[in-house]
Amino acid sequence: MTPGQSDFTADVITAIDNPAGEGLYIPNYLAWDRSHPERHTEMVKSANKMTRSSFARGTRLMKHWSRTHDKPICSWNIKALALGCITAPITMTDYISIWLSHAIAQLSIGETPDPAGVSGPIKINEKFTRPQVVAAFRQAQADFELALQYEREGYPMLALNQLAIFFGDENMMPKPDQDEVKRIARERWREKNPTLLPASASTASTSAYGDRLPARSWAC
User: Fold this and answer.
1) By three-state DSSP, how is residue 49 classified?
2) Taking the domains of the chain in order of start, what are their residue ranges?
3) Which single residue of 99, 106, 161, 209 has CA 20 to 30 Å from 133?
4) Are residues 204 and 212 in contact, defined by beta-carbon separation less than 8 angstroms?
5) Has residue 149 got a pLDDT over 50?
6) What are 73-97's pLDDT values in tens digits?
7) At what angle do helices 156-167 and 130-153 cross, to 10 degrees?
């Protein structure tokens, strides 16, 4: 149970069978749209089983990212994009990297197709243009890749700070102490730029956070 939120919510809509083909007709203001929610559910369940729940876990993370970034695409769009690229059990860091790359590639050429092949393309948030959504995903990708880079270099606190920037939600992932982050960033800069330091300056960090660490300490 999430504090301040109800345990369960559900959307109820009117629909009628499509007498001439698969799926249903769902009302959309003055018209009826074709859809196939049963097939969508089957595809999502299959993907979740095939990936040993990686699909569901990673999709929840990207939904959370979307909520903290003005919801550029709807939840179903996130799932539909995942159906096109998440096909095996993977870590959450791999999920995010793969999903963002796929989303950028797909939305760069057009809206996301219906995975069931019944309805039209999935619309993005009307507040945004498609290039704006792609730009938002490119920025997210850059933020996330920087977190991975910090982790590879052995700076877990910088990685955690960058990951907090990526998600943009202090309740979910609070930023670490910013004074310490700045200090470690300076240490990293000195290590990356030894020729710019005075000859007597030491480039070695004595901090447990500043030292290079070989193990992945935060990725899952």
Assistant:
1) helix
2) 53-176
3) 161
4) no
5) yes
6) 999 999 999 999 999 999 999 999 9
7) 160
